[in-house]
Design brief:
CATH topology of the largest domain: Aspartate Aminotransferase, domain 2
Largest sheet: 7 strands, mixed
CATH superfamily of the largest domain: Type I PLP-dependent aspartate aminotransferase-like (Major domain)
Shape: globular
Strand order of the largest sheet: 4-10-9-8-7-5-6
Strand content: 15-25%
CATH architecture of the largest domain: 3-Layer(aba) Sandwich
Number of strands: 15
Number of helices: 17
Distance between the termini: 51 Å
Length: 388
């Protein structure tokens, strides 16, 4: 009697290459093909892996993180009674020398709550023209804080101080009120560039002179710390409020924290509730953050090393344009000539590399702890083959 083995398309489509993903159907291996479950072709497809460099948000919890999440003591965080959340908030606040911290579901919510702590109707936020709060948060500042953003261009994320000073509005009733200066460190659209401590101290002095707070979008502040070797306390001294992310290079599945004074955090708690960010037994997520600080944060230097390795090898490919001096953290931005974005990305994907643009004509590759040295070599080889 022959063997019939059904292969479900759901099985073929989990974590495999596009070769397997094209098999989105059920098929039978009939009596003349008794090999169960797959022919050699399909077994090889199942073993293949797509390397995904679109973002460091693509990390998945490792076994230790999952265990920490499963075993976390929990309570109701809306009542401030979740012990794991409280432990995370206290730890991160202490790291940066801040009075208090608040766990929020996302970096966007963290940024927008912080801006709303400083700005209100008719106010203005000074921010770099490539900032995440300007490009990727759905104009939320105009809805939440009811303020507008005054964008200041820069070369690599450090807004020239004279332009910042010029952007501060005169105190006249017909101008918007300048309420806060916002920075992003490291800076995503500039390719993971780091704002120097000397620059930040000068910006802080300017802000102090003008009576303005500074907010830091610290989605990748951990990478900036690794790159500069600065203590988190240094950043805590410079920034009035901060939003720091757990779900990028640190590898947690969800969450950011707002940092500031006790008064900031009490007001932020009201904003979080208003925006639907109050969660109950959220210690299962906070536990991932605590685990990441202990186990994943020490791995970030390897992400930076692999980004530099990738960039240096790309620089040797004729049709790639890249400024290796801008590769300062875990992000690599480059261009390719003679091929449009869609064609290049599709050709890479067909060979097992998923990559995306950061803006038209500019590719971004982001490295995280689940990308290996071997993956780097494989990705460079794929790009070289596509552009050959």
């Amino acid at each position: 009697m022959g063997m019939h083995c059904l292969v479900d398309h759901h099985v073929l489509n989990v974590g495999v290459s596009p070769v397997a993903q094209r098999s989105h159907r059920r098929f039978a291996i009939g009596p003349t093909r008794p090999l169960c479950l797959f022919t050699r072709k399909y077994r090889l497809a199942m073993m293949s892996r797509v390397i995904d460099l679109r973002s460091d948000t693509l990390t998945v919890p490792d076994e230790g993180m999952r265990r920490a999440m499963a075993e976390a003591p929990v309570g109701d965080d809306v009542y401030s009674e979740d012990p794991t959340v409280n432990a995370l908030q206290e730890r991160v606040a202490a790291m940066f020398g801040k009075q208090a911290a608040l766990f929020v579901p996302s970096g966007t919510q963290g940024n927008q709550i912080c801006l709303a702590l400083h700005a209100t109707t008719g106010d203005e936020v000074i921010a770099e023209s490539g900032a995440h709060i300007f490009h990727y948060e759905n104009a939320a500042t105009s809805v939440v804080a009811r303020a507008q953003i005054h964008a200041v261009a820069s070369d690599a994320g450090e807004m020239p101080l004279e332009r910042v000073r010029s952007a501060i509005r005169p105190r006249a009733y017909y101008y918007p009120r300048t309420a806060v200066i916002a920075v992003e460190n490291s800076h995503n659209r500039h390719g993971g560039t780091v704002l120097s401590t000397s620059y930040l101290r000068e910006l802080h002095a300017l802000a102090q002179d003008q009576g303005l707070p500074i907010h830091c979008d610290g989605a990748r502040i951990w990478n900036a710390m690794v790159s500069t070797g600065e203590s988190p306390l240094t950043y805590g001294e410079i920034f009035t409020t901060m939003s720091v992310c757990l779900s990028k290079g640190l590898g947690a599945p969800v969450g950011s924290l707002i940092l500031g004074t006790q008064e900031h955090i009490e007001r932020a708690r009201r904003w979080r509730k208003m925006l639907g960010g109050g969660m109950r037994q959220v210690g299962v997520l906070a536990a991932a953050g605590l685990y990441a600080l202990e186990n994943i944060l020490p791995l970030l230097p390897h992400d930076h090393r692999r980004a530099r390795m990738f960039a240096e090898r790309l620089a040797g490919i004729e049709r790639v344009g890249i400024d290796t001096a801008r590769v300062q953290t875990n992000v690599v931005v480059f261009t390719v000539s003679g091929m449009d974005d869609t064609t290049f990305m599709a050709a890479c994907l067909s060979r097992g590399l998923r990559i995306a643009t950061i803006s038209p004509g500019r590719m971004r590759a982001v490295f995280y702890h689940q990308i290996t040295d071997e993956d780097v070599s494989t990705c460079v080889g794929i790009i070289a083959e596509v552009l050959a």
